[in-house]
Amino acid sequence: MSTPRILTVRPGPDEYAWTFGGAPPVARIAPGTVLDLYTEDCFAGRVRSEKDLVSEVCTFPFLNPQTGPFHVEGAEPGDTVAVHFVSIEPARDWAASTTVPLFGALTSTHATATLQPPLPERVWIWQLDRTRRTAMFRAQDSDIEVELPLDPMHGTVGVAPAHLEVRSALVPDAHGGNMDTPEMRAGVTCYLGVNVEGALLSLGDGHARQGEGETCGVAVECAMNTVVIVELLKGLATPWPRIESDTHIISTGSARPLEDAFRISQLDLVQWLVRDYGFSELDAYQFATQTVESPLANVCDTNYTCVAKLRKQWLPARETHRGVHARLREVAATLRS
């Protein structure tokens, strides 16, 4: 096995992308390249204490900075970019979470307008123990402290959208983007359909951990040191972002209302079973109905994101996405050795 090329990228403060599409590539990479990346948190590192309110230290729409985009050589519409997450590690010993007025699932928003006042703006600073792999929650209105396990993930990974669109890095859709699913952790491969020449891949929005749904709208937001392997699957279309782990195949759907996000993810899973596992459409529909797990990813962003996941152990022994996940797992093992 040949040694892959490794490209290290540590962006400066003015070298992030804030959109998918519309930003020039920071580098051209060949398929098979390993990217060793630093990603800043969704606040661009500006929320560092409980006194740093988002409304005072951040400027909308400059939230969710992305490292990239990367032009993947040979990528064309109708292809798929595979992004294997080798490692996702917090870059600091602290992370931040907040409540933001008119944002989140349990408050009035600009789209769900009511007479009640918005929730107050608060900041929680989480202390991370990277050696013991823990994150410490400290309540502000009591003496409650709870030590939780780290579960690092990337809230945002995506490519440029189709049809010359430029989308805010806060928005998830068919191109990927701010899906905020805890499934996007180390050891998985994310499949993204290519919409423009070079794909223009970016990622960011690291979370030290996050519950399903990201209810208040903000996870344990953290800068990350992340290593990924980028591969290209020519002539293989992926209509919505998919994730493959060692144990599951996972479809995503992003839309509003929530039911449509659910439907997209379920339909994509059914179509995945038909294409790669030998099911007829109705057999796949029946089988998925009785086996699928359907965790929420986010119910707070511009579009909501739902996930449909199915255990590989219940599937026929077939190859999916040309076996790239297993191959990239092998490459990842050589990088760690």
Automatic annotation (TrEMBL):
It comes from the Bacteria. InterPro entries: FmdA_AmdA. GO terms for molecular function: hydrolase activity, acting on carbon-nitrogen (but not peptide) bonds, in linear amides. Transmembrane segments: none annotated. PANTHER family: FORMAMIDASE C869.04-RELATED. This is Acetamidase.
